[in-house]
Amino acid sequence: MERKYTILAILLIVLALGLVILPRTNEQKETNPKVLLSAIAEKSRYLTVDQVTHRIIENDPTLLLIDLRTADQYKTFALPGSLNITTDSLLSQANLELFSQPGKDKVLYANADLTSEKAWLLCTRFSLNRIYIMKGGMNEWYNTIVKEKSVTGTPSSADLDLLSFRKAARQFFIGSGETVNASVNPTINEKIQVIRKEPKAASGGGC
Amino acid sequence: MIGSIISSGIISPAWDNLFAVILGIGFGFALESSGFSSSRKIIGTFFGYDFVVVKVFFTAAIFASIGLLYFSYLGLVDFSTLYIQPTFLASAIVGGIIMGVGFAMGGFCPGTSLCAAAVGRIDGLVFFGGMFIGVFMFSEAFPLFENMFYSGSQGAKMISTVLGISPEMFTFLLVLAAVGMFMGASWLEKKVKKVNY
What we know:
Chain A is α/β, with parallel strands linked by helices. Chain A is built from 8 helices and 5 strands. Chain B is built from 10 helices and no strands.
């Protein structure tokens, strides 16, 4: 190799070695109160039950559902692929690593919104990103997806598309038009695949 | 990268299209000034007489990795806001083989073909046209490939996580591998008969 390239190669090695030997800092910071207040006022944390359902059916690999209800409620009825984490164990080391997973949208849900809001606030204060709430929780999901709603008046084509999607989703989750005592099998005791620490992305795109 | 700077509040999101254009022009300029608008130069990688493609892209990858890790260390980039392409194993393997064959046959990849077309090279224009025909055919026949396309989903997976090492250590090993490859490529270039183009 030419001399100038040799110098550049040594420089790159030294820079990379610097990364390895630099002391680790405590990366878990508390969110600035102003930023937190701004995030609370922002409504982009909410996902509708239709959006979540669509991503479940599409088997979206970036979706991570967190069921915040009790273990008994979770065993009785839960969304497929969801993990059961109660709010009292939300900020344990294992769960923090789970919430820090790169490339995942963590969607919280409970029976209604109150528990999810509390959990979202805790996560956001811990500077965890990509945390969302399924608006209305399982009650809204059941009323929207599982229970068939009648249409009043003349629906628009968008309404018809939505109704058609919900009907297909209903068949996906419960297999038929039955809405009474319908159950969805949750993934119980599934081993949590924790991807540790924050993502370190290589360059994206390509040539 | 832009997203991370914007979400940190350093730059307004209104600038993102402008940044995309500036970065695109910069990328095209880097490709052209490295000689990537010549299919003979690119095809040299497969025949062993010119490894500039591998050198340029490998340098870009390790330079970006080191930069991102230092930015993260200094608190300038929040990695959790970066989008990481989910891994679909089967489609990545099949797509990689198709791209490699196309690369070897045509002497371009999508970006370099645009670069060659921009400077008026006929082979670049033909490759560019063929690429769009391929995209159209793939789109029309997508239902046939859909199952394969989405199979082997592994989520947003990082090699350092799979290996159980820190991203810093992985980058260091990657830099060592890159330097070793640069030396090996330079040695090989001297052994292979020179091609003038």
